[in-house]
């Protein structure tokens, strides 16, 4: 595993966030497409993975000090939730 950087490269962080976002969307598409063929536990596991990916993306964005457009965090989706 490589060394963690104090000041990550923003360009690479943006590219990584875009890839994580794509994977996030693919997981949700899998659940939506195959939910009738999955067990509840299987669908739940995919949703948990998707949630972890989203948190990972938010962490990367925060550490690299980037704010990507179309980010729908809780505070932007519903300002009352914080």
H/I helix tally:
3
Spans of at least 5 consecutive residues whose pLDDT stays below 50 are 74-82
Q: Report Rg.
A: 15 Å
Q: What general outline do the C-alpha atoms trace?
A: elongated
Determine the N-to-C terminus distance.
35 Å
- Indicate the mean pLDDT: 78
* Helix-strand sequence: HHH
- What percentage of the residues does DSSP assign to strands (E)? under 5%
Number of strands: 0
* Largest sheet: number of strands, sense, barrel closure: none
How much helical structure, as a percent, in the residues? 55-70%
Class by alpha and beta content: mainly alpha
Structure description:
The chain is mostly helical and 82 residues long. It has a domain at 10-64. The chain has helices at 10-34, 40-63, 74-77. The model is unreliable at 74-82 (pLDDT under 50).
Topology:
Layout: H1 10-34, H2 40-63, H3 74-77
Helix pairs in contact: 1-2
């Amino acid at each position: 595993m490589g060394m963690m950087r104090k000041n990550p490269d923003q360009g690479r962080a943006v590219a990584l966030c875009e890839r994580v976002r794509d994977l996030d969307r693919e997981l949700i598409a899998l659940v939506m497409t195959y939910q009738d063929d999955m067990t509840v536990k299987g669908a739940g596991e995919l949703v948990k993975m998707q949630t972890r990916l989203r948190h990972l993306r938010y962490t990367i964005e925060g550490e690299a000090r980037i704010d990507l457009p179309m980010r729908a965090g809780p505070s932007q989706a519903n300002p009352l939730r914080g």
